[in-house]
Amino acid sequence: MAFVQGKAGTGSVGITSLAVTVTSNPTAGNLLSAGAAIPDTTGLAATETADGAWSVAINHVTTNAADDLGILYKANTVGGLGAKTVTVSWTNAANQAGVTIREDSGVLTVTPLDKTGAADATATTTVTSGSLTNTGSNGDLCIAVPSASVSTNQTWSNSTAGWAVDVNNSPNASYDAASASRYQTPAGAFTTTWTLSTSADLSVAVATFKLAPPAGGGLPVFNPGATWRRFYMPAAGHAFPGTTPNAANRDNPVSLTESVGPASDSVVRAWAGARAPTESVGPATDAVTRVFGGTRGPTESVGPASDAVTRAWAGERDLTESLGPASDSVARAWAGTRGPTESVGPATDAVSRALGAGRGPSESVGPASDSVTRAYAGSRAPSEAVGPASDSVARAWAGTRSPSETVGPASDAVSSQLGHPRSTAEAVGPASDAVTRAFAGTRTPTESVGPAADVAAGVKNAGAGVAGQDLVYLDGLTPWPHQTS
Amino acid sequence: MSTSIPIPLTTLFANLVLSVPGTPIPTGLTDMVLAINRNVGTNSLDSEPTATFTLTAEISLDGGATWDGLISGTFVGGVFRDLKGNILEVSALETSLYGDPQSTLRQIRGSFANGPVAVSISGSLTVS
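Predict the joint structure of the above. Result:
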């Protein structure tokens, strides 16, 4: 960590931007920063061609007659020729402007800005910043720039312990610009005081940037198999806090107060050590897997389970976990018991009746359609209707006809071989040759038979004969050769 | 001992560039000022509030073979006054030089790049 180079540039009367070129091409990875003192810092910005636009660390609008102050920066510069000329611009044309450009090494390359602050003083020769406390784990680079209501031909100085004035063009006929810095390691509280050679309204702006770990440093690698020795060096003027170490007792524990900040969310729970009382753990995030085998702490909370939580999970649900209604796509084959809050809509027609389980009270079934086969072995529900038997119903059907079924008059196709006497009302039309009387049933009163045809005239009925013994004759004809007598 | 290169009164049409040629920098000098008078000529900067212009100063460390930037600023026309109401009549840029102050190869040059409005200027490039 070091101040590498710096330069001041000033402009006057009607100026809206100022481009200042430093002596050497900046080195890649370094911090570039600019201090700007302008009467009105509205629209304050900085840029160079290598890195593009810079960030504004602080834009301080003064409460006195001193010029406004801004500190802008670019961390981890690309460096090179393109980063050599820095242009600082603002909106309203200024009567005077002072810009200090500086390059510092050893600063964090990512989000280095730590603290900013500013202070104003009226009619005085000194201005002191408010106390700021840095937080950089490796210390901070602190940068301070001043401004005054009398901005020409005066001399700036900063004699605060630990501070160095790195860029200073004062006294100057155009503008008195300066920038001071200090490296504060370890981080802590600080102030800085600028002094002007004449009494005026004064202001100071401060920005601090976190330092990178020392080269070759960083966290030590823990080797569980190594033998670790404890050595503690007491501060100057303090007695050793325990037994003075020597070759015999150097491994003895020495009481020191260790402090550990709150654990960050990224602390892995697999960490096996005991947490210190001052460590806190925020609520578990949803991403915490439930396969975690440990016990949840009292302060840990779990949000409602998402729908994606599989029901195959074998554990018990927590009281705060809720499940929405089961969706229709939930398979009925699911063997578990539904919870009180789960509901199932009416079964759709597509639900197979082959389902062996009993239907729920809320399930309904519409009337059977005509296509329902009568071969279905179950009982029809009262709401099922059956239309009249169609003509195509086979008469071979063995059941009893219902009252609503009708049979039309026998057609001529009815066989005449009926073996019983005709009733009185029966009329017989001329027997056709094709009629067979084999019909065994009884004719109804409405059946009529016309006169017997000639071919039936010779038939004589022997009365009550016995089958296989009686002889039937046909007049004028030869007895049938196969009949017995 | 300082040295100054005068810029005579000139009226520049729109978008023209007035160059101050390269001049050796006497040894031992460390600062420069490029100054322009705002209230000279028929088209003074004070009388042209819509005028814009850019002043630039460059340095050479090798006798004028190559040039590098020192400072540059963008300005506007119109009348500017200090807190006491006095009109400010000079626009200027000032910065320090770099390179070895004892080198005889250092040179300096400047330019006035005019914007869309014709203006009249005079001034100087001074090294001290």
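The mean pLDDT of chain A is 66.
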